[in-house]
Structure formats: C-alpha cells, structure tokens
UniProtKB/TrEMBL annotation:
Gene3D superfamilies, sorted: PCu(A)C copper chaperone (2.60.40.1890)
InterPro entries: LpqE-like, Lxx211020-like, PCuAC_sf
SUPFAM superfamilies recorded: DR1885-like metal-binding protein (SSF110087)
Family annotation (Pfam families): PCuAC (PF04314)
Signal peptide: 1-19
Protein name: Copper(I)-binding protein
Species this protein is from: Halopseudomonas yangmingensis
Length: 152
C-alpha cells in the first residue's frame, strides 16, 4: 500500500495508532478464568517509517510483568520463549496471533473482563512510547469482527 493509502486508512480507522513510524492496530486479548493470572495480547504492527524499528519493552498497569514472546519448535515440541525485541523493517507488518508471536502478561492483578479495554504501553527502540488500549474478547468472539460488520 502506498503512503496515501496508509494515511487514508488511518483516517477511516481510528483504532490505528501511529508513533515512531510504527502503526498498531486491533490489539486484543482473550478473557481468562479468574484463577489464571497470565494472558496474551495480540495485535498487528506495521512499520510505516523509513527506518527499521523495534518494540523493546511493554508495560501495563494490569500486570506485574509483560514480555515479548515467540513460539519456537524444538524436536517437534512447540514452546514459547521471550525475545529481546520485535523488529520490523521499513514496510514490514507483523500479525501477533494465537499460536504465533504475542505479548505475554504475567501477574494479572484482577481478571480481565470480556468487553473491557485496558491500557498497554509499547516502548520503541528510538524512545517513543506508544500508548494503546487492548480489548478483551469473550469466548468465541473474533478480533475485529464487530468492526467489519458495523455499517458506517
Ligand atoms: Cu507467551
């Protein structure tokens, strides 16, 4: 997509956030049972800038700790591990999704309510802070499905 297209998209969809050349869209998490205090956040990241850009840290008031995770397969066993950064080349997009890269939350203080939205801050390697909210979806709810079915 060309730059004008990206700009137009940004105007049409207020859910797209941009800072430091990085665009973030459709951040969501799945509601978990109250006895589980870990969770994952998924989102779509695009580097609309001219320089490589990386997410190096995350913070959220709802969890004691947040890590960048990726899934790795070792000897046929799928596990997840922390990575130091999520790096995107100019023009690159990355979809964080269940079974793939994700943001992992540990020590969630209170259960995240389906339908609620909670703040999350991404720190980029150039010092930019991207403040976003992620939505918590109930069982069976699909990310972005409500937006697409909403007539304007
Ligand atoms: Cu994880």
């Amino acid at each position: 997509m060309n730059k004008a297209g990206l700009l137009a998209l940004g105007l049409l969809l207020p859910a797209v956030l941009q800072a430091g050349g990085l665009q973030v869209e459709n951040a969501w998490s799945r509601a978990m049972p109250p006895n589980i205090n870990t969770g994952a956040v998924y989102l779509r990241l695009c580097n609309a800038g001219a320089l490589p850009r990386a997410v190096i840290r995350m913070t959220t008031p709802v969890a004691a700790r947040a890590e960048l995770h990726q899934h790795v397969e070792r000897a046929g066993v799928l596990s997840m591990q922390e990575v130091a950064e999520l790096r995107l080349e100019p023009g690159e997009c990355r979809q964080l999704r269940p079974g793939g890269d994700h943001l992992m939350l540990f020590g969630i203080g209170r259960p995240l309510q389906a339908g609620g939205s909670y703040p999350l801050t991404l720190e980029l390697d150039d010092g930019t802070l991207l403040h976003l909210d992620f939505r918590v979806l109930g069982p069976g709810q699909r990310p972005g499905s409500n937006r697409q079915s909403e007539p304007d």
